Amino acid sequence: MANIAVQLYTLRELLEQDFAGTLRKVAGAGYQAVELHTYGGLTPQALRSLLDELGFQAVSAHVALARIENELDVVIEEAKTIGFGYIVCPWLPPERRQTKEDFEALTAVLAQASKKVAEAGLVLAYHNHDFEFERFDGMFVLDLLYANTDPSLVQAELDLYWIHRAGQDPVEYVNKYAGRLDLLHMKDASKDDGSFAEVGQGVLDWEKIIPSAKDAGVKWYIVEQDVCKGDPLESIQTSLAFLKDRV
């Protein structure tokens, strides 16, 4: 179970209502590790105390690009206090992904920031959606981004749902970034309408994905469901039940 985490964005509405209480329910659902997207209004010290109290390991955190650009030193100190080892750039605002030059600028930011992150004993990663599957110079943006950053400094946090949504093969991408893929976002797609589904309940081929992920050296399988049709707590339990004897 130590290698399965949950991205807390899945539970964002519940966390906004009761941050500590929702974390307790996540622990009760069987999770022992989390990926953060917010600190819930707590100081890093208070958040670390709460996570320790509940027996959680904070694996990683999604950190807005603007913070990586403008307050990286603060983010690094937060990571050290809270205890997460991976700082993940999760999203590129629409106005910053209109041209090839926009993505080249992102690559430069990540390349520079990754050096300082590594010096602090941490790791920088980039998480994809589907907009990175636009082509420039015959290559997808996502591949250009990884090709033009140091594999030892910038990790791939691949999101299987968004790779599938872009019409690409998740297994192919897991294999392509073997050795650079410590973090993998586990999501499924409904066979009915392509919407988000609990892991194992949709159309992704987990019988191929999971062995490929193991071969690729994935360290953390991170459950995330951007939108849950039912109770998010039940959704993350369903995904955990599917994964816990398979990864």
TrEMBL record:
Keywords, sorted A to Z: Isomerase
Name of the protein in its database record: Sugar phosphate isomerase/epimerase
Organism for this UniProt entry: Alicyclobacillus fastidiosus
Stored InterPro entries: IolE/XylAMocC-like, Xyl_isomerase-like_sf, Xyl_isomerase-like_TIM-brl
GO MF term set: isomerase activity
Domain Xylose isomerase-like TIM barrel: 23-245
